Amino acid sequence: MAQPRYDHSVAGLGEANFEKLRTCKVLVVGAGGIGCELLKNLVLVGCEKLTVVDLDTIDVSNLNRQFLFRKKHVGKSKAEVAGEAIKRFNPNVEVEAIHGNIITNPLFKVDWFRGFDAVINALDNVDARRHVNRMCLAADKPLIEAGTTGFLGQVFCIRKGETACYECFPKPQRVVYPICTIRSTPSQPVHCVVWAKELFKLLFGDASASMLFDDPAAEGEPSSFASACAAVRTTSVDGASKAVGAALAALCDAEVKAQLALGTYKTAKKVPTPLSSPELTDGAASQPPSTITNRPADWDRAVWTAPQCSAEIAEVARELLSNDMKERLGSWEFDKDDEASMRFVAAAANLRCRVFHIDPLSLYEAKGVAGNIVPAIATTNAVVAGLQVLELLRLVEQKCILSEERTSLAEVGRYTYCQRFPTGRKCELLQPVALEGPQPTCYVCRNATIPVALDTNETTLQTFVDVVLKKKLGFIDPAVDKGNSGLVDSEDEGLARNLPLTLAKLPAGGVVNGTLLCVNDFQIDLEVNVEVRHKANKDFDEKANPERVDILTGAAAAPAVATHHDFISQNDENSEPAAKKARH
Amino acid sequence: MATFTSTKPSEEETNKVYDRQIRLWGADAQRRIQASRVLFLGLGPANVELCKNLVLAGFSATVADHRKVDAASLGYNFFADAESIGKGVGEASVENIAELNPFADVKIGSTSSCSDAATAEKLVEGHGVVIVDVPCTRGSEEERKLINEACRKSGAKFLAVRCSGDGAAAFLDLGAEHTYVVETGEGAKKTTSAPQKASYCSYADAVGVAWDSVKNKKMAQPPTPFLLDRLDALFADRPTSKKRSRDEGDFVAFARRELAARSLGLDDTILARHARVAGKCPAHIAAVVGGVLGQEVVKAVSGRGAPTNNVFAFDAATGSGTALFASPVERAAAPKAAVPVDAIEL
């Protein structure tokens, strides 16, 4: 007999199925917005064998929905704090909480996944979802996937050979902005925000990695702002206002005038207007908005004037140049939750917007853009996490898991959309539809060949590995063979010399139009064929596709999505966009 | 009564905690939420979830439950623990509810029953929203009608929900005249409509309609959870002389009779299962229902987006959650802009 605390579960499931649920080994990947809700549901319904993995630590902006966390937990491991909290909800539970990265931690091999009966994702980014999908396919374990964006969400099940996998359908790709858009022709606020982040890097971070950096060794005149920007880093705290004023005057006045004189904007629809240098230099010495005493609560919602921006940047410079910060100079990286870098980016983006006649953003708005913040609420997470457990119970009841029989998920699984308003002819707020089957074009679950078009005369093997295999196709440590000859293998040092070569110049006849490559990755137990097609660089639209690569099938073939959630960094909750409507 | 609040926080501090939701529903909606207090009558499975969701969002809360914590309730009430078995549900839960959000004010409310309009009005007073978790209150359908009338008088939004192992049904009454705006698009393309009005019928009117009328186009009969809810209400309120035990056969025979009298029918397996799981609601079903209804309360209080008018039914067997209309008056033709054709298409 099950304990009285399980009465509510046993009533519906019956003793036998409840016992299966109680001893079912469940892996929960993610202890954030969905994860907190999910873990609570699991322990309350009686799942006693849980493992939870999350790489993240708790932030104050999580507290409006990640209800296992309190203010005193800020900075601590999500997995560990959540694991402790759910033991209080049900002391019978054995929970293994692991603070770690599901993709890179060597503990999480395919065999480790085989040790579970079911895997439930509570993730916030495409990369980790893609990885767990591949591991579950390799380990032949059912995966219950979910995602939310604001009011919208979805839940669905995946199992090898029975249903479509996570990568059977196109996924939004991260937008990469062409360097010229950032350096010369911004047309949207996000371009100015990216520029501001690059300027932050140029001034206080790894300057040579900034898009705004001019290699002193390169031919041609360095930009007019290069020396003024370099001077900021070497100045004293007392000299910061002056140096910042000079750098901003160079960036927003002198450089703009220089480009106009060069005719850069002769054919442009919108011609930039230089800002006034004295306004920027005098402004740098004025009162920064963040330091006003008794500033109103919504001070970050106001759009700063140009002199205020200048003052704010000078204030940030003073903070970062101060003695106790000095050792970090040259290694600063933008972080939306780091106040100083956020204030800098908001102010710099604002100035950049002004030059190019784009409506400037407030600090609050700039933070949303710069940090790819996806709105998130407790209610949507609660719904999808509830539906995930409903699916888990179905897998048990319908004998998809923990049974000699193996009912196909194609028969019992569902894809459920969580809608904001009643939708469809049934007026549904929760809209279940049948699961799709595996897609023949899927290179992940159907081993379909992936056609890839690029310039074989210009693309190096290194770029092919980094951009095509790792970034676009999600390999972690790919080995590449052409017929019997190996081209890439991280364990074969002799092959490293191939990496700088262009594809066409590789040994054994090169990789040219029509070459079939076999790509193998033991870490994710995936082997696929890549068919290379030659497409000259000049035939790519550089604006739309600055990487000059076409993936012609499968999940990686989706066009980039350029909303203000541009997926450049995926460090926030639930950046998986919820499906817009049922596919049926 | 004990209340649990910390010192008054600065707006800057609350903005940080509420950042991700303010980005979704805006500062004005957030202010309305923080100014609103919800009365939770019965801390059953649905209200535990609703209470968590709404207190996290910034609502203040009054919780009232006449029952004592028992072992089975630990299967859904994560605000209580084994040590609190035997204590009053409100007393055992209030501290943990308050801990969810130091900026929300959480207190225990009166658990006395309402026998007349005056006591109902007193109970409702000071609350912007009243949510009745039906199986976890002593009240009959008559008492719920009294509470609803008091809400209509004071302007409070009213919700009654019954959750079981099969799913749930909920009635919403946002008043004779509920005003809201509709937003379409996102970011810079977001547009807000002129204020729209929706009229809700009273709870008495909603539960008084012919069951068969409560269905959407192309439905052969009302969704199962709605019928089961109505059967449960009748079964619970049947004359005491007929109340022996709630055994399976009793309920199935009763339900069959009541359905047949209305030319409706449900499969015996569904009825037999319901007899076992009525009054039992595993946490995950409560989570689904509490999430959907929590969002409806946010819509109602913020005045943003058309809330469901006026029934929500969730069927755990199919996973479908449906909006239904139960009212003696014809459904008003929705103004064109009121319900975006495809609100979720970007």
Automatic annotation (TrEMBL), chain A:
One of its GO terms (molecular function) is SUMO activating enzyme activity. Residues 8-403 form the THIF-type NAD/FAD binding fold domain. GO terms for cellular component: cytoplasm; SUMO activating enzyme complex. Keywords: ATP-binding, Ligase, Metal-binding, Nucleotide-binding, Ubl conjugation pathway, Zinc. Pathway: Protein modification; protein sumoylation; Protein modification; protein ubiquitination. Residues 273-295 are annotated as: Disordered. Residues 452-538 form the Ubiquitin/SUMO-activating enzyme ubiquitin-like domain. SUPFAM superfamilies: Activating enzymes of the ubiquitin-like proteins. Residues 310-367 form the Ubiquitin-activating enzyme SCCH domain. ATP binds at residues 30-35, 54, 62-65, 78, 124-129. InterPro entries: ThiF/MoeB/HesA (IPR045886), ThiF_NAD_FAD-bd (IPR000594), UAE_UbL_dom (IPR028077), Uba2 (IPR030661), UBA_E1_SCCH (IPR019572), Ubi_acti_E1_SCCH (IPR042063), Ubiquitin-activating_enz (IPR035985), UBQ-activ_enz_E1_Cys_AS (IPR033127). The keyword Metal-binding applies. One of its GO terms (biological process) is protein ubiquitination. The active site is at C180 (glycyl thioester intermediate). Zn(2+) binds at C165, C168, C442, C445. Belongs to the ubiquitin-activating E1 family. Heterodimer. PANTHER family: SUMO-ACTIVATING ENZYME SUBUNIT 2, UBIQUITIN-ACTIVATING ENZYME E1. This is SUMO-activating enzyme subunit. It comes from Pelagomonas calceolata.
TrEMBL record, chain B:
It comes from the Eukaryota. Pfam families: ThiF. GO terms for biological process: protein sumoylation. Residues 18-320 form the THIF-type NAD/FAD binding fold domain. SUPFAM superfamilies: Activating enzymes of the ubiquitin-like proteins. InterPro entries: ThiF/MoeB/HesA (IPR045886), ThiF_NAD_FAD-bd (IPR000594), Ubiquitin-activating_enz (IPR035985). GO terms for cellular component: cytoplasm; SUMO activating enzyme complex. One of its GO terms (molecular function) is SUMO activating enzyme activity. This is THIF-type NAD/FAD binding fold domain-containing protein. It comes from Pelagomonas calceolata.
